[in-house]
Amino acid sequence: GLPGAGITLQRDNIQKRTFTRWANVQLKADGVEVDDLYEDLKDGLKLIALLENLSKKPIKKTQRVKMNIHKLQNLEYALRHLEKEGVKLVNISNEDILSGNHKLTLGLIWTIICRYQFENLSMGNVTGGKLKSLLLAKCSQSIMIGYPPAKAHNFTSSFQDGMAFCAMIAAHAPDAIDMEAVKAMEPIARHELAFKVAEERFEVHQLLEPSDTVNNPDEKSIMTYIAALTAKL
Fold first, then answer.
1. Rounded distance, CA 28 to CA 53, Å?
2. CA torsion sign, 122 to 123 to 127 to 132?
3. pLDDT tens digit sequence for 5-20
4. I need a surface site. Which of 20, 129, 169, 216 has the fewest CB within 10 A?
5. Against a cut of 0.85, is the pTM above it?
6. Half-sphere CA count of 195, side-chain side, radius 13 A
7. Within 13 Å, how many C-alpha atoms sit on residue 90's CB side?
């Protein structure tokens, strides 16, 4: 296997892809797009647009962002807004985002996903282990209907072969996914089918790359997609 640093980088790259796609789904209505998550949040304007969209509340901002002092000000407005929304920010400062700190930028977006994407599932303000078990229970209900043998025990290896994703969607669109046919497919093909049906039937954007999920299932990325999927099913 890869040495620790390689695994961390790989996981960060997968989260970056997932979180960028997730942010763009939220920003689509505003005609705003994030291309590079580490670069595009630095002036605070896209971060503020994302938070205004999710919280449905206006946030103070300065449009003139030539200088770092203006960027830091916007980032400060964004972080303060999150705190007002009941989000506990641990060790994330406006300077970390301005400097493009990978770990803390990903941490910030994950915190935002936990606050807005998971809370939309009427799961209340839950974090950590509680969040995981509630989300797992929710998706297990669908899997039981769609294809009971495809059990989900976690948000990593349980979703690696694609059966659990297909079962979840088959529960709500049995005519679009034939689980007997799915059993004969390769894992990548199962993911492609599940994500395609989710997008066409339920307007759930493909936040995951099949090859990532088959080869390196990332817990936070899979949880983000499942929360988006569960919200629409």
1. 10
2. negative
3. 788 889 999 999 999 9
4. 129
5. yes
6. 18
7. 4
